[in-house]
Amino acid sequence: MQQGEQWSSKIGFILASAGSAIGLGAIWKLPYVTGMSGGGAFILLFLIFSLLIGFPLLLGEFVIGRSTGKEAISAYKAIAPGTKWHWIGYLGVFTCFLLLSFYSVIGGWIIQYLYYTVSGKMTGDYAALFNSSVSDSASVLISQGLFMVITIVVVARGVQKGIEKVSKILMPALFLLFIVLIVRSLTLDHAIDGVRFFLKPDFSSLTSKTVLYAMGQSFFSLSVGVSCMVTYSSYLSKKESLLQPAFSVVIMNLIISILAGLAIFPAVFSLGFEPEEGPGLLFIVLPSVFDQIIFGKIFLLLFLALFLFATLTSAFSMLEIVVAATTTKKSKGRSTMSWIIGAAIFIVGIPSALSFNVLSDITFFGKNIFDSADFLVSNILMPIGALLISIFVSFKMKKDLLRSEMIQGSKGLNFVFTCWHFLLRYIIPLIIIAVFIDSLDII
């Protein structure tokens, strides 16, 4: 995307932003983190954090980007020149860089599974297949590299037209395919046990770790706290409302998250898996579910293709924020910087890719390299970024500018603006700080 371009329509912006948010966070990460964090109580916290923290922060990033029409770092400089606030942008760029380094590893797994499905290797013990896949260092690195090449090629050319046009087809298709999966999953024996685990809160299992993970998941799944949406919203027309797109993205993300859980957990309990399976949960359970469906392999191939698209749209936005931040001065061409940065991200991601095989013995606080990078991004860097953004928007930006940007294209939103501003200034920072302090013993 070149500076100065705009989304062709509001629905295009919504779907592109949703595509950025709805990826591994909603489809891959939420189910396994839910399984490891006690089920329903975690989901309830995730919903609360998404609505009371994620939504206001997403809207805050929209306001920063649309009001300046600039990418992350330049946007903060434009609003607060001569200060250090633009370091929020640098923090976001670094976080996206690190996030994509391990995110691309899962993207590579999806490509591997697409190959298995097409070649007929998707049979037998899926747990053993997953373990053997991630243990093959050469295959993992090749797949990760292919995922990064696809991401780089698209971003190097500019992603607006491709994402907008394809999102309007594939995002609804992903939604409909989840409905098919849920219907089949809910008709399996003992499926109700999975529904109960996923949706019925058990507060006896609530811990500081669960609260921290739920807050981190709300940031991860909405792409907030890294200024990614600052860059995306900078391409939105001044005539469009910001409130509706922000709310639409949050609701779409929550719906996909719930659908993913309803597709997976009934099958987990019915097929005898443990909900604490971890990062491989999606790759082990869903193929087993598709085995129970007529023409299951065709549906699995279609799902993996759509899942790859959802993953790529998120990857596009991560690489976009880094590329946009490094090409604003036109020192080098967009294509050149896309390849240089993409290659650097791939190199940094190699230890994460190898943390399930040759580097599996290297751990930090009991976590392998992959899980450590995930924890650093989701539970430390994103919340810190979110805290700084909430303070910046509510204290540093002029209230009249905030009001005019937020209510642009809408009417009668003064009360909503007051509530939003109050949440950003007083409630959200306190919640983030309180959760951090309460969870210091687990970091």
TrEMBL record:
Pfam families: SNF. CDD domains: SLC6sbd_Tyt1-Like. InterPro entries: Na/ntran_symport, SNS_sf, YocR/YhdH-like. The keyword Lipid metabolism does not apply. The chain crosses the membrane at residues 12-30, 42-64, 85-118, 138-157, 169-192, 212-235, 247-273, 293-316, 337-356, 376-395, 415-437. Its main location: membrane. GO terms for cellular component: membrane. Keywords: Membrane, Transmembrane, Transmembrane helix, Transport. It is a multi-pass membrane protein. It is found in: Membrane. The keyword Hydrolase does not apply. This is Sodium-dependent transporter. It comes from Cytobacillus dafuensis (Bacillus dafuensis).
